[in-house]
Amino acid sequence: MNESTLRRALLVIAILGLAIGIGAWRTGLGPLEANTIWTVATLPVVAALAISILRDFWIGRFGVDAIALVSMSAALLLGQPLAAVVVAIMYAGGTVLEDFARGRAERNLKALTDRSPRVAHRTSTRGTETISVEHVAVGDELLVRAGELLPVDGILLDASASLDESAVSGEPLPERRSAGDMLHSGTVNAGETFNMRASALAEQSTYAAIVRMVAAAQTAKSPFIRMADRFALFLLPFTLLVSGVAWYVSGDPIRALAVLVVATPCPLILAAPVAFIGGVSRAARAGILMKGGTALEALAQVRTAIFDKTGTLTIGGAELIEIEAAPGRDANHLLQLLASLEQASHHVLADSVVRAARGRQLMLSHPHDVSEHRGAGLKGRVENMSIAAGSRALVLADQPLPGWAKSGEEKYRDNPVLRVFVAVGGELAGIFTFGDALRVDARDTIGKLRKAGIKRVIMLTGDDGVAAERISRLLALDVVVADATPAEKVAAVEAEKAQAPTMMVGDGINDAPALAAATVGVAMGARGATGSSEAADVIVLTDRLQPVADAVRIARRTRSIALQSIIAGLALSGLAMIAAAMGQITPVAGALLQEGIDVAVILNALRTLGDGHLRRA
């Protein structure tokens, strides 16, 4: 019989004992028989609790459940078996309520582990075979049918796929992915069958990391919870002192018993763990993995936020920033022509151009007579028009810029961007500017962090000062540190940490030392940056910055609710102890009152599972 079943059985025995004893009293069997029944119903709870306390004591722990043991034992010795059985019901009921609360808080985390990928369909020249996910090797081509879980991380081979990523990233709507995009294990194929190439083993894939972190979240104790455990130990001698004084002053041992009954510190021993598990669970639903209550508590106290630039505040790569179209030209048509031509190129920009066109739902044409001028650009024909795309020298030769293009040239003169000139029929038709673009939610995220109590926001990057200052001006950051090596990043983080609790947010392997050095390391793990993810305390699974602000808000709300539950619960218990010492509360009434306090405290702690003021961007 496991502990949860035993607790429910003890609760049933105590409730039945109370009911049968009341029935015996009402049918005239007399108080002696009723007292015997209530005593018998209490003894199993007393015995189980005594064994539990001895077992904990043997391994070096001493729990405050001893107060419940003392109160039940004292009630039996003082000839108050009705009070004893009511306390037994309250204690056993509290443990069952704790099981329910923990189960409710852990349900979302357990749902993640229960749906781990089990099998994969490997394709080869011999056909398709179904294998265990543990047998997938890097480089294997896999078939993913409609409605199936992706077994491992990989690269999409087909032109497109629709994926339900809600279990991993928290995104409620299916996401469209294109050929070459990174796919994550544990997501669901929400469209037609597609092919992918495995890029990681099962145990190294996204979903396996989630499962490991879920296990850590369920077993780790935060410093806040450990502090609550230590503080709770002082309640036993304090309770015995108060009950002894009440007995001495009044001469009535029943008053001492009433004090013991209302003093069980369930608000302290239950509220904090339930609240923190709930907070970790709430974060997981939003695509944020926290490595236990320790990470959540530390995140709740940060005052300084440090961000890497490339791939964190910015998209990280050559993305389309702006299209300057000649008078009379349509920007979307120019993008359609350029993307059609770039389909024949292997240049690093080709994927960005094609992806931008598909993002605008543009239909691409097949290019003809394409010639590639290495390092300079492309020439070819699209829709029976001659197209040239590339450097200014390739497209314009020694011709001057037309007037409409001069303002853009001046605008980007000192910026680290790539300018692609596009001519149609020998005439300059447009200029495309590519660069490491700012994330669309970066400004909003910084603003929400400041509202959440972050006092200082810093950008720490290995990029040059010009690129860093451009991003800083857009975000109104407090400090910019550029041209930083990994060692200099660590030194900068440690210097800030010495002033205030500090959060470091990064995505690359080179950020891992700085993430580990910070009070809290937050990794942008959507692109599979396993080095930074292993070093981090918190991992954001979606490729957005907004969850960083969500994580801070969840953490602060969770810690606030835990504190509310503990302070309110102990205050109510303290008032009840005073009332009991003054003879205003009987032992039976005290047990009922204490159970009401416990229920209120646990229900309040379970609020961490909800959104509160959190809203998805």
From TrEMBL:
Its main location: membrane. Pfam families: E1-E2_ATPase (PF00122), Hydrolase (PF00702). It is an enzyme of class 7 (translocase). Keywords: ATP-binding, Cell membrane, Membrane, Metal-binding, Nucleotide-binding, Translocase, Transmembrane, Transmembrane helix. Residues 116-214 form the P-type ATPase A domain. It catalyses: Zn(2+)(in) + ATP + H2O = Zn(2+)(out) + ADP + phosphate + H(+). Its EC number is 7.2.2.12. It is found in: Cell membrane; Membrane. This is P-type Zn(2+) transporter. It comes from Mesorhizobium opportunistum.
